[in-house]
Amino acid sequence: MKIAYLVHPISCVRKLHEPRTADFTGELNEFIKRRLKQENLVLFIPDTIDEKRIEKEKIGEDSYQYIPKLSNSWALPFRDKWLFVPIAPDLQEANPLNPNEFKYQSAGEETKYMISSMLKLLETKINSQINSRDLSLVEFSKFLLVYRPYYCGTSPSGVEKEMDYNYELKTKYSSQKNRKVIMISATEDIGKLNIETFFRGVNKIVLDEKTKEELKALRENWLYDSKRNKEFYDKSWNAEEIIKSVEDILPEPNNYGFHKEYVNSSKSETFKPLPLY
Predict the structure, then answer these.
(1) From CA 127, how far away is CA 274, in angstroms rounded?
(2) Residue 146, C-beta contacts closer than 8 angstroms, at least 6 positions apart
(3) pTM for this structure?
(4) What DSSP element (H or E) covers 22?
(5) Alpha carbon distance 121, 191 (integer Å)
(6) Cβ-count burial of 68 within 10 angstroms (0-12 exposed, 13-18 middle, 19+ buried)?
(7) Rounded Cα gap, residues 232 and 219, in angstroms
């Protein structure tokens, strides 16, 4: 019996604007359905629990106000397949974050702040539980099936943590030495990863918010430009064009001077994906 644990980006996908979130979940679900047709395969899919569904609104650069409302659930491949007795119909519409239907919108700011603080604490507790549960599922599995880890152009911490733990088990215990990782990726995802890496280097020298927003817009444009994406995947970009595109945005006097490794196509080590073993 083959027992696998499915690993894929979650948090960053939730933050994407539609229809990109739906594109990813739809493609993932088709992938899951095909895998489950294989004989003698048990696939752990952590999204089926989906317990961290607390709505929140951004109110600052790195701050959020939590709202007693369930956020959208993760789209699953088999919504009609229950492993347990379904919740009673009259309870399925209940809001567990606000079971008494408190009039949140008309509450004062102090009350909203107090509710937000409690929900943030709840999210922290849930995160801790998720981490413990997911690592336990990694232990129970024989290999990891890692699906498009760079879809958002980043290397998600959750994906890295699960792969690192799998590698730790493999190297620490002789009985676990046959553990494997199978990664399914796409060239466009590697292109996104390289674009994000490039802009992280540029953003280190930018201080004013106006320039940051302009760079963010340029980055978004490049991420979903198929031609630019391909250039960053196979390192076929025009260095002078890349530099000029960014320097046109940077405020005067522009004394930055790009490091060659950011645009030198011979430097393959510049963009380093997750290790695969």
Answers:
(1) 23
(2) 7, 8, 159, 163, 181, 182, 183, 184
(3) 0.78
(4) helix 20-36
(5) 37
(6) buried
(7) 12
